Amino acid sequence: MDHVSVREDRNCDSISALKHMCKRLIFPTSKTLIDYLRQQSEFMLNMATRPVFHPWNKSQTIHGSDVISRPLATGEFVLAMLNEHAQGHNCPYLGAKVSIEHLDETCTTVDELKSSVQQAFAATRWCHPTVAAQVHNGKELVYPVEDANQVSQWLERTVHLVQSSEGWIGQHDKLSRDVVLPTATGDYALLYLIVHPDQVAIDNIVSFDLLLHVHHTLVDGAGLRTLLNLILQSLVKPTSESYHWGEETQRLAPSALDAAIISDEVVEQLNNMPKEIPLPPLGGNATSRHGTGVVMHTFEKDNFLQSLKYIARKHGVKLTGIVQAALLQTVYSKAQPCEEDALTVISGYDLRARNLQKPWSDRNQFVGAAVGLEMMKLPVTQLAADGSGKESLWSAAKHIQQNWASLAERKDVAAGAEMRRQATGFILQMAMAEVNKEPSKLGLSLNYVSDPPGSNQLDGTYQQNGRRTFKLEEYQLVTDESTPKLSCRSHSWKDQLTLEISFSYKHYTKEFVAGVLEAWAQQLVSRLQEEY
Questions:
Q1: Which superkingdom is the protein from (predicted)?
Q2: Is residue 259 helix, strand or coil?
Q3: What is the pLDDT of residue 3?
Q4: Would you say residue 22 has pLDDT above 60?
Q5: Cβ within 8 Å of residue 16, ≥6 positions away
Q6: Superfamily of domain 292-454+477-531
Q7: What pLDDT digit, counting tens, does each position of 279-327 carry?
Q8: Would you say domain 5-51+92-136+146-260 falls under CATH 3.40.50.970?
């Protein structure tokens, strides 16, 4: 394994440059700001007739900074408790590979790139201040209102330059063993710039990796993609106008519940519910962390994704249906369950598109935790024992499709976590029991998320005034996993489908999970071959 080093620039010149930079960042365009404020006004008018459950308020000074805080929503509280008691379980990462195409004779030095990434992260805080928020006492989300000097110190703490030939995956493996958010300095979001030592040696960077590690209470998968897109946009934008830190607090996002479309009946029920969440003793996980592994498979063959979509439509299902059914078929074959068993899939889904009000439903507007959870059960009798029965797989895909169609028609889903508020203690106890399980064979319960196409949120190409172009070559969301469940995802980017599984090293070896991934991929290849 290559030596991994973290480079720290602590000289006075770099700190002075950061201070200057933090005073001169610019919100993308004045038109963007005007549109944003107009949409905010419309949002406030729409919300004026109902109570705000988790309002932002000025609060007492903490460590010399004024703060703005709001109570945690129930879903956010669950994530905060899991992170605290289960050593970072369920914390999300987003890794990305980026190439640089130089359009003139200049080159990109490592110092220039690090400075640009710091500037981009500051611009990200300006647009989405949630990245600098903190969780206090497991009950409040707190945003410190800081001046330019304090923001520059925040950048020094949160943006790290790492030299490694292992890219973001190697850095993730290390962090999943060694780092639990918040950091010792109280930060809940970190950004790593990872460059190959060979490129550092010649000081000409032509490719690099980025890794975002953010506390799940602050952000979900869609929010991470929004942050990544803004970071890459900001890498190529000049910062020529001044602004004052503190004004960014106007853009602190509400809780997903307060941005949600929910009925008057549910609003009344929520308003009458007890605010306190009773908690039984939760205990804690072992202090040592086994870490989370990641395996991925991308179908690079031309037209594979389009062909798979075509045969899915032919059988009356969407891409998610066939990909999820192939995953269940694979797990069934590996686990060899009894006939009376059922496969259980817990799927997270984004609330933005159908369940949040404007402007928060618009592309890349909402950064926060806006995820619903759906549990699907599939009797094993619907799947073939040898994994070769294509009719049973399409039957499973249709069953899954019906589940998702039913969910799309359901009302008030954004209030689901709040409506289960009084069961929160039991839910957390069950989660902790899973975390503390000893290693065993592969079970019939797993997590699966079908992410939307990356083009829904990511521009992909980011050009800087004819000088150079940054291209997002690939990316992957990863969830830290501490239980025996496999956490599986799929997404498409550049007309290619990628499958991913993250897993706990406490329960599985990388070789075993790589075998599961290969079998999952082969299920899809086989379905395609049968149709053509």
A1: Eukaryota
A2: helix
A3: 35
A4: no
A5: none
A6: Nonribosomal peptide synthetase, condensation domain (3.30.559.30)
A7: 888 766 555 678 999 999 999 988 999 999 999 999 999 999 999 999 9
A8: no
